[in-house]
Every structure is written in structure tokens, then in C-alpha cells.
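BUG: 3D viewer hangs when loading the predicted structure for this chain

Environment: internal workstation, default settings.
Expected: structure renders.
Actual: progress bar stalls at 90%.

Input used:
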Amino acid sequence: MRLVEIRLLEGPNVYRLEPTVKIEFAVGRRRTWSGQRLPGRHAVVRLGAPVPAAKAPRPARELAAWVRRIHLLTDAGAWLRAEAGAGGRHRRNLPVAIHRGSDPGHWVVAFPWREEERARAIAEGAWRLVERGADPRRTPARGLAGAPRSLVRTLRLVREARTTPAPWIRDGERRVPVVSISGTNGKSTTTRMISHILRSEGRHVGTTTSDGVLVDGRLVEEGDWTGPSGALKVLGRSDVEVAVLETARGGILLRGVGYESNEAAVLTNVSSDHLDLQGIHTLPELAEVKSVIARITRPEGSVVLNADDPLVAAVARSVRAPVCFFSLAPGSPRVRRHLARGGRAMLLERGRLVEAEGPARHTLLDVAEAPATLLGLARHNIANALAAAGAARALGVSREAVAEGLRTFRPTAELAPGRLNLYRLGNRVVIVDFAHNEAGLTVVLDVAEGIASGGAGRRRPLTAIVGTAGDRPGDTLRGIGRIAAQRADRVAIKETLKYLRGSTREAVVGEILAGVVEGGGRRADVAVHESEAAALRAMLAEPAPNGAVVVLMCHEDRDGVAALLREAGARPVDAADGLLDLVPRLQR
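C-alpha cells produced before the viewer hung:
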């Protein structure tokens, strides 16, 4: 038996929708996780589901019992009684639950907290008592004569501990509505689309993204602010009327969500990314983590879910708020059943973005009118636009304002930096995108192939410059290499040295190269470059007599890549007229 971690989650999380102490420990020999990323139903681990004590190992039962006993003996539960209120139910016993971890032999004991130092003292004391074999059943609830010295010491530490409150924002303290966006791919673009729609209607919008904190589109704090700290920054500002918060997996797992509830939530999709980190190994587990933002949506709000992703659509069963599905396949049985029950959905129907509610249909705009869709080539951005429309409607934005916002949102380096930014350099086309996993690379290559096949009956050669952070598992890295080799005429690797995150450059490059070989390519044909700018410079230095489409997975040196393109004389491709020059068939 060994302790993995004691972590104080400061807001809603997979275990409880409130600040929670997580005590994770392992029983038995050390084992490495192995299995399917999308396991069968019998093998899915439900992280937030309590395990009955009878089915938990003895250390888990005793740890939970010691947490309750210490809490009771120190009367640390005054806040439980205070929160129940005069008309509420008087609670003295602390709600403690046992959960199964994803890693083999791992278990979690979780309980709520309001006073940081006391909560940590309870958790640490309970663990010490279990380690020393103290039996919680032999310790009387009143009177400590003969009690173990370790228990007496723990009780003293708990009583003397400070009582710093949790930093999350309660509903009574929050003055602006919140929409939270999560998912594996598309959440940054969807976040920016929602913010743009709201700003187009005249609202003052605070936004968090992986690029930074923005107020009315102006960057006020650079960096990745997709965790609870970003939410606190936006919700604490007096010049914001609505908060649009990109919410990442890491923040939920490591600290929890930074506020009690939201008015709307959006889940874009769930695919392989950031697996084998923080004990998350499978896609259902990843979906469960991301679904926290949907579970805290207020009953009068709305949860916007991707009906085309089974893992996301299944979240509808665990939320309190009405569900608004979005779908590129409006004839799907799931959507039909939802509408038959009077539900709302945002759909792609006959080349139009449509809001459906029961049998009623309201056209928002044609796909070709939304520049981010690249005249329909970027189907993933059609889905993002539908998701953004659903969230904006949940916040009371009119259909006309939603349509106008989508008409004026362009995939430029200013409005959507690093997200499907297109440049033309002579007879070449360069696509710069944040794609950092298999799904992201796939949708960008869909766009690239559409452009490559659109020129006067001749297909342009397609080059993919790929690479990602070092904390991705081997199967993800190999998948990136395999997809690139199968779909591009030429593959190059750009290293991401700033984000090796504990791995080695040799290991990352080696896995991607192995994937290239799996996809039918040859190692000898793949050039490896130290940076994104170096890789792009090498590609542009070579002749391209038939033109070429170059896709660059870019997330380390976006500024350097942009500067290189400017120096070379590249110009941004307008999402409408400029794209028609490249792909004349889109005129139809």
C-alpha cells in the first residue's frame, strides 16, 4: 500500500460538484495500465461512481472510516450544519466516498472541504493512522483514553489548523453569466466564435483561451488560462458583462472548476489526446472529466452537446439542464428522437445552418456565408459554428445576431490565431493550424486535400509538417505519423523542444517515424527540423513547379512562423474570394 497523492480540488470535479479532498493510493504490486482506449462497456471505469464499501479493499474502507471519525472528533463539520440552514437537513457526518482509479490497483477516497488547512490535516492524519494499522472501529467516538498517540496528535493538528476558505466563486458571489467550453478539438475556435457573436451584439465579453485572457477581443494576459485561475481573473473584472471560458481537462483534474455553476456549457468532441496523464487512460474517462462543466450547468440553462460523438451525446443523461444537440447529420436517430420530445438542436440541413425546436425550423444562414467554414471545406468549423450558435442562443442572443456574428467571424490570425490560417505564397498554399493530435491533423488534412484537388483538374502535391508535445502517449505519436504518411505526398517532422515535458526528442521523433512507416512511408524520406520555422523555411526553399499545399502543425512558435511568412511575401487567403481562386469548383 502506497500513497499516490493528497490533492485539494478547489471546485467542481469528477468526484463532487464542490471543493473535494482526493486521497489516491495504490494497493498491491506496481502495475502499468494496458487496455483499449475505447473499452467495452464492462471494462469502463466510472471515476466518479462511488464504490460500495463491501467491494472496496480494506485500506480504502479504513481510510474512509478514519476520515469520518477524525472529522467527528474535532467537530470540523460546523460548516456542514451552517450550510444546511435553519430549514435544511442537519448533517453531522461527513459524506465520504470510495472511488476506483483508472490505474491498476489505484483507489480514491474523496470528501468535501471548506477549510483548506483543516481538510489537509484530516487527510494526512487519516492516512498515517491507516499506515500504522490503527483500527477505526476500536476508537470510541467520545473520550480518548487509550487512543493511539498518532490519533491524539492528528486531532490536535486539525483543531489548531488554519481555516482558509476555498477560492471558488459561489453563485451568490458571481454577477455575470458564464458559458464554459470543453472538448478535445475545436474548443478554442468555438470559444472565440461565441465571444465574437456576443461582442457583435454589443456585450462586453471576458474570454479565457489557451492563448490568454481577452476582454472584448483585446489580449490582457498572455498564456494558457484555461484553468480555474483564468476563470477567476475574468469573473473578478468589473468591465465584463458575460464570461466565455475555455475549460481544459488539466485544470479540472488538478484543481477543479473555479466556480459553482454556469448558464451554458458546450462539449465539442472527445478524441485521443492527453491520455496516460493524471490517471486518465481511456476516452470514456476523458469524456467524464470534460463533462463536469455540463453537470454544473444550472437547470434553467442549456447544455450544448455534439450529437455525432457518442461519448459526448451520452453526457445528456447526467445533466440537470435542457440539452441542445448540434449535428452535421440531422437525420440521425438520436437527433430525431430529441426533436420528437420537443428538444432543441442546431443542424446542418441542405447547406444551411438551422435551428430546430420540435417540428419547427429556423434558418440562420447558408454555410457559404460563414467564412470560418471555408465555403464548406472545413466541416469541423461547421460543427464549431453550430455549437457556438447553440451557446449564444442559450444566453439570449437573437437568431439574427447569431447569424451576423458568424458572417463576420473569419479564420484570420487576428480573430482565430493558429486555427486554420491560410496563406498564399506564389503558387503555394500554406495552412497553419494548432492541430496537436490525430483528430486535429485529420480535419486539417481534409481541408488541405480539398484545396489540393481543386486546381484546374490537377491535384497539387501535399506536404504535412507534423509534430506535437512530448507528453503524448506512443500510440498518439505513431497515429500522427501514420495519418500524415497515408494522406500526404511528403512528410516532415518539426520538433517541439519547448514542450518535451519529460520525454526526449529522440523518443518523440522515433515514435512519429514509426507511425510514418506504418502508414507506408520511408524513414529516409522524412526530414527532421529543430523548430516549426526551420521546417517551414526548408519546405519553402524547395521548388514547387505544380504549386503545393503545405500543412504545418504549429503550436510552439506561431509568431516566428508568421514573421517568416511575412518576410517571404505570403499574403493571407480571404475565406471567400481568395478561396474561390484556389478551388474554382467551390463556385458551384
